[in-house]
Amino acid sequence: MTDLRIGDRVRVHLDARYGQRAGWYEGTVFKIDPYSAHRSFHWVELDAEAQAILGVKHISVFNPRNIQKIAAPA
User: What region does 29 belong to: left with phi over 0, alpha with psi -120 to 50, or beta?
Assistant: First the structure.
């Protein structure tokens, strides 16, 4: 996984536990809380569309498989 930094645009994956709301949602990393030497909680402010669907503004992601950095437009 690419090192994520505050301000990075990302996609966050919500699994089948979220039912019909499962899938990928976009947002921006606004806080990183270190957990160990190798893992951190990444706090993401979801885009307005994702907020409307999920009913939350912020989400934390611990599993690195559930967060992907979005490449900046060229």
Answer: beta
